[in-house]
Specification:
The protein has 18 helices and 18 strands. By secondary structure, the chain is α/β, with parallel strands linked by helices. Helix 3 crosses helix 8 and helix 4 runs antiparallel to helix 8. The longest helix is centred in the first third of the chain and has 26 residues. Bound molecules: nicotinamide-adenine-dinucleotide (NAD). The site of nicotinamide-adenine-dinucleotide (NAD) has 28 residues, from helix 9 and helix 10. Pfam families: Aldedh.
């Protein structure tokens, strides 16, 4: 039973034990889960072993067969019920996310909205995406062909800490509705968001063994999942994504990798910077910049550079910092000390090499122990580490460019290609968006417009990933395609009595005629 709201204190003992009971782990060592909002640990979860992962797959494989045999209507009904439960428990879900991450309430609520979006979208569209399709056969009238979608089996899911609720389930929803089971490993910093999702899934009617959660270390538990699953859904850093890519490559299984980015914003000269300045700041500093699609570099046309910098700095400085389970501030905490040090190190390196701090640049211990001021850097030297590397914190640099073409070239120059943001008049903006090398290009906004457009597949190009979430692709990737064809009336080789030498001329004439009459695709 979930409480209505939580407070800034460790999770209540009964809730902790209910949630831990939902893991597949067998006790043993535990991992202490810290909270940026309180001094004591939020709770503990088991540190999983390879045996736990074995057990999760054993159970998931048995459960998956029965789950896949249930009608699609039955499976989608579970996710309609899940949608209602997430909606009903939205406040406590946002509380758990905030307690685990220290993020602001808007960012926590974005996670709730994302889960609702995915549950609704895939429950509503699964029948279309998974329907058996009639396809043109090899020979018109004589061959009937069908395309069938079969669940791959057990999907492994490894997720990071920055969006622990939405990344625990949004990608798993289409996998589950398609008839798969899932073995999930949340990040050890944020396991409770994933476990509370499991609680709601079970309450919604999902057989408990269909969604297994094994808590524990990335290398041990995550590695073991990659060694056993039939498809791997990974969200995290490019470095880990490449490692896992080697494992799944060796095993020849499907892989979706949603990885890091160094997302660029392009500001063209025909933009009203006053009007968009706050949206631009939100594009960089939402969730304190700990967001894969947020902006870390801005290329601004020289004609409006000064106006832009003035308006953007003002908006950045207007962002309020805060902590706690309330709506009263714009930007929350970083997740932990490692993250704080990482951000400070990047800023110090840039400044030591000659970058100018336009605003921010330091921690904000007056707000909280892990808060860092939203930071704008200018005059960035070529050798600053953050020029090309992802900070994953509230730091952006601004660079003057002589033309839109130069901005596009700079945006495309890095190995990453996750998201780009474009501020320009509509005609110019769509033109720029078509030319940037990124899996998404968001116009007049940072990332929310593309992320929230559920019907369009989303993901990264180049070193930002492979595979897509959302849209039809976000579901069909979890299926194998079976091609079933029936030959009728006469064999593909012609009538038995036909002399063999007629086969070639007959078939080529049949294909030529089919082409002329457009009987074949
Ligand atoms: P990370 O790769 O270190 O960890 C992500 C997950 O992988 C965690 O659950 C971790 O325990 C696990 N893991 C770590 N090493 C592993 C290994 N050797 N084998 C198997 N699993 C392993 O990522 P992070 O630094 O914690 O997360 C931030 C990164 O994630 C950033 O680069 C960010 O851009 C990226 N990210 C991408 C998206 C996206 O949708 N593209 C979304 C969120 C975060």
């Amino acid at each position: 039973m979930l409480p209505k709201r939580l407070r800034e204190q460790p999770l209540p003992a009964h809730l902790q034990s209910e949630l831990v009971a939902l893991t597949t782990n067998h006790g043993g060592e535990v991992i202490s889960v810290a909270s940026p909002l309180i001094d004591e640990p939020l709770g503990t979860v088991p540190a999983g072993t390879t045996d736990d992962v074995d057990e999760a797959f054993r159970r998931a494989r048995v459960a998956q067969r029965a789950w896949a045999e249930r009608s699609l209507a039955d499976r989608t009904a579970v996710f309609d019920a899940f949608h209602s439960l997430v909606y009903r428990h939205r406040d406590v879900l946002a509380d758990i996310v905030q307690l685990e991450t220290g993020k602001d309430r808007t960012a926590a609520f974005d996670e709730v909205l994302d889960v609702l979006n995915n549950a609704r979208y895939y429950a509503r569209n699964a029948a279309t995406f998974l329907a058996e399709k009639r396809r043109p056969g090899a020979l018109p009238l004589l061959t009937r062909a069908r395309e069938q979608r079969i669940p791959v089996g057990v999907v492994g899911q490894i997720s990071p800490w920055n969006y622990p609720l939405s990344l625990a389930i949004s990608d798993a929803i289409p996998a589950l509705i398609a008839g798969n089971a899932v073995v999930a490993k949340p990040d050890s910093k944020t396991p409770f968001s994933c476990l509370v999702v499991k609680q709601l899934l079970v309450e919604a009617g999902l057989p408990a063994d269909v969604f297994q959660v094994v808590t524990g270390s990335g290398q041990k538990v995550g590695g073991a999942i990659a060694e056993r699953c039939d498809y791997l859904m990974f969200t995290g850093s490019t470095a880990t994504g490449k490692k896992l890519g080697r494992t799944v490559g060796e095993r020849l299984i499907g892989y979706s990798a949603e990885l890091g980015g160094k997302n660029a914003m392009i500001v063209a000269p025909d933009v009203d910077v006053q009007k968009h300045a706050r949206t631009m700041a939100i594009a960089c500093f939402s969730n304190a910049g700990q967001l894969c699609v947020s902006i870390e570099r801005i290329y601004v046309h020289t004609d409006i550079y000064d106006d832009f910098l003035h308006a953007f700095t003002h908006s950045t400085e207007s962002l309020t910092l805060g902590k706690g389970l309330n709506w009263d501030y714009d930007m929350g905490s970083l997740i932990d000390d490692t993250q704080l040090k990482r951000v400070q190190t990047y800023v110090d390196d840039a400044v030591a090499k000659g970058a100018r701090v336009v605003t921010g640049g330091t921690p904000r211990p007056d707000v909280g122990p892990l808060h860092f001021a939203p930071t704008v850097l200018a005059d960035l030297p070529a050798d600053a580490n953050l020029r090309e590397e992802e900070v994953f914190g509230p730091v952006v640099y601004v660079q003057r460019v002589g033309s839109v073409d130069e901005a596009i070239d700079l945006a495309n120059a890095l190995p990453y290609g996750l998201n780009a943001s474009v501020f320009a008049s509509p005609h110019t903006a769509w033109e720029i968006a078509r030319r940037v090398e990124a899996g998404s290009a968001t116009i007049n906004d940072g990332y929310a417009a593309t992320w929230g457009s559920m019907a369009t597949p989303l993901g990264g190009v180049k070193e930002s990933g492979m595979g897509r979430r959302h849209g039809r692709d976000g579901m069909t990737k979890y299926t194998e395609v079976k091609n079933i064809a029936q030959q009728r009336i006469v064999s593909m080789r012609g009538p038995h009595a036909m002399p063999k030498r007629l086969y070639g001329p007959l078939m080529t004439s049949a294909l030529a005629l089919s082409k002329r009459l457009r009987l074949l695709p």
